[in-house]
Amino acid sequence: MSIFRFPEKIPTFFYLIFFFILLLVLTLVTPLISNQDIDFIISIKNETKWSFSKITDFHFFISKLFYTIVVSLISDQYQILRLINFLYLFLIIFITYKIIKLKFYDLELWSPIVAFLVSGGILFSFLTIQGFFLSGLLNLFILYFFLKIFEENKINNLIYFNIFSLVALLMGNFYCLIIITVLSFIKLTNFNLEKEKRLSIISNISFLYIIAIVLLTINQLDQEESLLNIRYSPELLFERLTYIIPILMPLTGILFIALVFNIFKKLNWNKDLLFFLLIIVISLIVFIFSEEMKFGLLIFILPLISIYIFRTLEFVQMKWTKLIYLSLFITPILVIYTDTSFYLSIEDIPFENYLFYGVIVLFSLFNPVFFIQSQSIIEIHKTALFSFTTIVSLSGVFFYYQYNDQLLSNVITKTLENDLNCSTEETKLEINDKSPSLISLYFEENIYPDFKPECTIQLTFTSLNDLPIDDIKSVNKTILDLNQKSFININFKKL
Question: What pTM was estimated for this model as a whole?
Fold first, then answer.
């Protein structure tokens, strides 16, 4: 199996560069995959009267500004709005670097940074236009400057801390109060802390809580949903775990090994590392039990998890504990499950899909679990990175090749021009109530035309379980609706 160990020889920085290129390509070619993204873009395009929550949403403001600048260039390529995520990501890298230098200055730098960057959470957040990155970024800045307040007696640290805290609260990120409260409690229990410092902490946190109460009250008056709702059910717990495991990949398995060595064997047993662990645990608990899924929390803890793992295991030679890397097989399983879920039955799956399944399973065999010799965490994770990035790259190529021509916008445009001899720019579309939300984004001008149409086309969307409309004057097509994660019928009738 020695031939499979060449990923260990690849420099860590190469994985970072390759993943950035991969993110850029996926950003530009991956279609919109959630109704939340579609609604967000529609609000950016059409919002004229802003509510209080919109005014204080800095991500919405930045996205609106970016859209205004590039609107003449992007046409209907709304995926370009994802490029804003690069700004957030570079800042996350920067603040992670600062946190490492502040608390773990002797830790090898690039391995933990690359480990959290090349992960399911970063990939998932990059393929959305939501403010997950900004939410996680703000929490990291708050954490950094709060820690720095006690390292340096400079007023600017306190100023920056309060600025980022206020921005987070204005954006509805009330979770930052939990971070601040936990940090404050830990610091106040230090009997050696000066009286002036204690009073400063108490007064500062009191000020932030007052601001939070005011903002919560305004949100309620604005008829916004409560941001502090907590609920529990076994179904909710299972649902959240199904998100946590792939988002933390490929760090999910090795996190448990780090916990064993740190907690039970007391390896690298120090207050800073235990504090990071406390923040990670609290964040996961809040994510699991929150009314809405706050993916920004997972973005926030990804760098902390990576630092925790590499600090704990930096001098450990792992052998039998590598069995935990069997968790890497989750990646091809998730990809195969996603693809097969598009189809009503196994018989409908094309033969080339099975070839693709075989290829990604083959590359998943680049797994540390098959190597008997002891290895360091850096060597092990390089192999995991190779497997993960290769599978993601192959999946991106396959999904684009297999399904791009079956996406709604492409099918409608080609059918209008090739089958119905209608120009897309001069056609009025009439749609039913079951129409995918995506159509109102890409064809808004066709649904509500301000021109005299040369063609009027009635679109009828039905499930594959329904028989196609039998009308010789109409055209039936099958499209892949990524929002419903299934194929559906679409009937074109020229009126």
Answer: 0.89
